[in-house]
Amino acid sequence: MAIPDFHHPHPTSKFALLVDVGYLYAAAGEVLLGAKERKEFRVRADELIKSLQKHAAERIPGGELLRVYWYDAARDRVPTVDQRVIAQLPWVKVRLGNLNARGQQKGVDAQIRSDLEALARHHAVSDTILIAGDEDMVPAVEAAQAYGVRVHLWGVEPPFGTNQAERLVWESDTVEILSADFLRPYFTRVPPVPSVPSPAQVFANRAPKPAPKASKLGPARSQVEEVGEHVAQKWILTRGRDNIRDLLPGPMLPPVIDTELLIEAEKELGHSLRPYPEARIWLRDGFWARVYREFNLGVGVSNK
Fold this sequence. Notes:
The chain has helices at 21-33, 45-59, 81-87, 108-121, 138-146, 166-171, 180-183, 199-202, 221-239, 241-245, 255-269, 277-294, and strands at 14-20, 41-43, 64-74, 92-99, 105-106, 127-131, 150-156, 174-178, 187-189. It has two domains: 14-189, 3-Layer(aba) Sandwich (Rossmann fold), CATH 3.40.50; 199-294, no CATH class. By secondary structure, the chain is α/β, with parallel strands linked by helices. The chain has twelve helices and nine strands. InterPro entries: NYN.
């Protein structure tokens, strides 16, 4: 009987990429930056995911990507700014566990095991690529294999020794290590947040210009700014200061977050702001004014 070749699967095969983000980020942060905590670095996750997809396609030529499962955690399962951006990417499904007060992930491993077993049981894929290191994954790997699915384990190059459970390595069908060079372009150390950024720094991406006057039928500037501040206050309370801190130094917002700000404001106002470009500027001014106060930054809104 011929041995199945990982590099030449059936042309109609499908594969899924399951990523334990906690493992990936921690391992990469350690080998690349010597970082112990995620807040010490930033990740260009959208570019990293595209690179992982491309690498997977090269490793399984002829295979069709079902989707990327991105397993992460957040306090009270309220997604962070980065997680909201990632969730908008095509072919990516974000799965969130809970992050407790000590920064420990809860429920993530269970979600990975459940999805891996379900994909295999329903014959949704012929191959899965698993980026993980925990021995808790072993029963799910064995269950998937029992349903005829090949499990390919990817790990992150460790600074020394190993960062994956030995038994997980044993039980997987193939094993590959992602090199530090492969991951390096997507990880950067976070510089200290300046206590008082200068106006030139904060407004570098927006050319200074007089604030346009509202049309007769448009909303009042003071009202829109007040709503922007209220949305910021609500987000600080519901999403947490650490989440909002990720937006600093501003004043540009990721498109996904900017759209959420607009939608929240329109709900509070009871009407659309989309016909009034100047109102969008005032809304952001109000939002940033509240955020800067929260973090004691000495920059406010633009001159009225």
